[in-house]
Amino acid sequence: MSHHASEAPTVNTPVGAFAYLREVAMVAYANPDPVDIHFARLQGDEQLGTLWEAARAVGVKPGTIRVWVSRGKIEPVLDGEAGAYFHLPTVERAAAGGAKYKPADPAANSRGPHAHAA
Q1: CA distances from 41 to 45, 58, 105 (A)
Q2: What pLDDT, in 10s, does the model give residues 1-60?
Q3: Buried b vs exposed e over 60-77: b needs ≥16 C-beta within 10 Å?
Q4: Alpha-carbon distance 86 to 2, whole Å?
Q5: Fewer beta carbons under 10 A from the terminal one: N or C of the chain?
Q6: Residue 69, Ramachandran bin (φ over 0: left; ψ between -120 and 50: alpha; else beta)
Q7: What pLDDT does 105 receive?
Q8: How far is the first Cα of the chain from the last one, in angstroms, to the nearest whole number?
Q9: What is the pLDDT of residues 67-78, one digit of tens each?
Q10: CA dist 9 to 12, 17, 115, Å?
Q11: Which of left, alpha, beta for 98 (phi over 0: left; psi -120 to 50: alpha)?
């Protein structure tokens, strides 16, 4: 066997062909197209907010927003060194949508007795 027989075959794929595909996440409440957000901002409609601003807009704690992100309910529009920025109208829609399952008895939503440190 020659040395070249063990090499993987080369596939010529144009690198630029995939440059414009956007990563699409599967979230319950998707953000609008970034272009729409940009044009809204140009018209003076500031729709983006930090984690704290998003929480304040819907009357929840910032931790609740983090839980919604981790469970795939919403996602930040921007997420980088400066922190996460959320589309506030999308956060408001998600808050209005509520939980997937709401029991009639609020106690039924409890996870049972909690172990408390003595």
Answers
A1: 5, 21, 43
A2: 555 555 555 544 444 443 334 455 578 899 988 888 888 888 887 889 999 999 999 999
A3: eeeeebeebbeeebbbbb
A4: 57
A5: C
A6: alpha
A7: 63
A8: 71
A9: 999 999 999 998
A10: 10, 20, 59
A11: left
pTM over 0.90: no
Which helix (DSSP H) or strand (DSSP E) does residue 82 occupy? none
- The CA distance from 58 to 67, in Å, is 14
- Using the Cα atoms of residue 95, residue 96, residue 100 and residue 106 in order, give the sign of their dihedral: positive
Long-range contacts of 91-95 (CB under 8 A, 24+ apart): 91/29, 91/49, 91/54, 91/57, 91/58, 91/65, 92/57, 92/58, 93/29, 94/28, 94/29, 94/58, 94/68, 95/58, 95/59, 95/60
Task: Report CA torsion sign: 25, 40, 55, 102.
Answer: negative
Distance from C-alpha of 70 to C-alpha of 51, rounded to nearest angstrom? 14
pLDDT band per the 50, 70, 90 thresholds, residue 117: low
